[in-house]
Amino acid sequence: MKVAVFVVTWNEQIMLPQFVAHYRRVLGAGTDIFVVDNESSDATRTIARLLGCRVRVFRSDGLRDDINSLIKSTEWVPHRRKYDWVIVCDCDEFVDVSPELLMRASKKGFTVISTQGYDMVGNRGTDTSVITRGVRATGEDKPIVIDPSAITGCEFAPGAHTAKFHGRVSIWRHGCVLRHFKFINPAYVVARYAALRERRSPLNRKKTWGGQYEMPASDVLLHHRRMLRAARVVK
To answer: What's the pLDDT at 163?
Structure first.
């Protein structure tokens, strides 16, 4: 089975090596990973190329959720005849998927798999492999695992929480777990929120996309502490 992963990145030098390792562990060492990078100022693109990813750069006037959604909707389409399944996601989204699960989905007639999402919560370090506890996050229930032989195209809404699909559409809801690694430690999430707040484009502000990044650092830390208390082991 041939699977490709398409990911939009910006300054993901911490997360990208772990992201690539995850998908090549669960799907096989030969899994193709397409990195669509939004002008990262860190080592993201260098790391991606060293890890054998295919890299394309796009420009925008800061964080533009409409452009990110358009890329997620279209980037995989020219490659659809090369792969049995494609995954379209962000760099902090680790989907628990396997060739066996994808084969089972195909046998059941499903052409899209929607995830069951969890915000994973850590307290120190940046190693996602040791973060086992999370909080159920319905905002991470995303239809991002796609059979491109049946789905001919789609339009993701900003954030990729929902999508309109074209072709033979049959959605397996909560077919697999998605682990969202934004809250890996307090310092990381405060710094990430601050960076994304600064990058919010005028359009994102007008549309209120990414409004959570306006949260003061003190509130981010309080939210993180509450998540730590509520977190349970995610299996």
So the answer is: 97
